[in-house]
Every structure is written in C-alpha cells, then in structure tokens.
Design brief:
The protein is 35% helix and 10% strand. It is α/β, with parallel strands linked by helices. The chain has a three-stranded mixed sheet. Strand 1 and strand 2 form a beta hairpin. Helix 2 runs parallel beside helix 3. The longest helix is centred in the N-terminal third of the chain and has 30 residues. The protein is elongated and about 90 Å long.
Length: 218
C-alpha cells in the first residue's frame, strides 16, 4: 500500500470529433456537455473510490469495513466483563476507594478511523513482508510518520522487540494484544514496548496526581 499506481481516469471525448466537424458548433456543444458529465460522474467517481475505499491510507469507515472483510480482521474486540461482585476503584456509592477496589477491565474497543487504518495496514503488510528488520523499520516509518519513533530490534536469539517511543491508545493496545499483527519472520518470538514522556498518574517524584496525570498503559 505504500506505492499505489497512479491511474488517469480522465476522458477527452472531443478527440472523437473528426477534423471536418471542427466548425460544427452544435455538435461540439453536445459533446462538451457529455464531457462535463463524464468529468463529474465518471472520473470523479473513480477518484473518490480510490481515496475512500482502495487506498488504505485514506479510506473512510465504509472502505475500512470492506478491507476488514478482505483481510479477515475484526475491527472490534469484546473484552471479558468484570465479575458483578468485584469491587471497583473509584468514588461514589457503588465504588471503593484506595486500597479497597480494583480497576475495571475495558468494555471493548472503539477505534478511530486513523487507528483502523493503522491496524489494517499492519495486517496487510504482515501478509506479504519477509519480516526483515530493515524492511519492517522502513514500514514503521511510513505507518507512524508523526506520532514518534517506532522501530524493531533483533535480539539475535530468535526474538524481536517492537519499540514505540510514544503512548499507544488503549484501544490499539487491546487489538495488538488480541491479534497477532506485528510482522516477524516465521518461528521468531515477538513482543512490544511503548514508552512515553507523558507523566503517569500517581504519587511521587515521577508521577502526576489528580487532574494532572494520565493512566499509563500496562
């Protein structure tokens, strides 16, 4: 998907006019009207189809749903619900405070359009790549051009580690944990780690407290 052939969908119907009809104003006007229709309905349709469906980098929700079927990859994961009797951390009538409650599990995924593109591009790349470190690193540079550095490290022990030097959204983490999407050579163990300079919620020198910090991904 990184190199999609450029297609020219334009049509020039005026080329069909023979030279002896160059002065036929009415005929030329009819053909021009037909040309205007093709520009709006034909060329425009195929350009929008490439943008909204064919190209995973720009596909909309409909196009991504089509790709999810083609690549056999669900874009939602239903998390296991908490035990009704499990005390949950929080404040209020139905929650427990510090040292008494547990964090609730995620209720499921709610991927944004951009996150869906990332997931499906990972799946697409996984299907045709050899999984070499240079090839994967080049792909990661295209997949995360603005989020931050992302690369894979070969441990030289039949294990590779993906390093994301930015915070991964929790929904994306759930998808990565649920499905085997990170490309790798056959027989090689894979793991990932996400680092972030954002201070996490908590107490102490390296944390922020209420109204200042975010929960870190596990």
């Amino acid at each position: 998907m990184s190199q999609i052939q450029a297609f020219d969908y334009s049509l020039n119907l005026l080329k069909a006019m023979l030279w002896q009809y160059n002065d036929a104003a009415r005929l030329e006007a009819l053909i021009q009207q037909k040309q205007d229709w093709y520009d709006a309905e034909y060329s425009g349709f195929w350009s929008e189809w490439v943008r909204d469906v064919f190209d995973l980098r720009t596909a909309n929700d409909f196009g991504l749903a089509v790709w999810a079927i083609i690549l056999d990859l669900p874009l939602a994961v239903a998390a296991t619900p908490d035990d009704p009797g499990k005390p949950l951390w929080g404040f209020g009538q139905y929650f427990e405070g510090f040292e008494n409650g547990n964090f609730a599990s995620l209720s499921g995924t709610a991927l944004t359009v951009e996150q869906k593109r990332i997931v499906l591009r990972l799946r697409y790349f996984q299907l045709f790549t050899r999984g070499t470190v240079p090839e994967v690193n080049a792909f990661l540079a295209q997949l995360f051009p603005t989020q931050g550095p992302a690369y894979v490290v070969d441990g030289l022990n039949m294990e590779i580690q993906y390093v994301f030097q930015f915070a991964l959204p929790s929904a994306l983490v759930l998808i990565l944990d649920e499905y085997d999407l990170l490309p790798r050579p056959a027989g090689v163990k894979v793991g990932y780690v996400a680092t972030s300079e954002v201070l996490g919620w908590g107490f102490g020198q390296y944390h922020q407290n209420f109204n200042n910090g975010n929960f870190n991904n596990a």
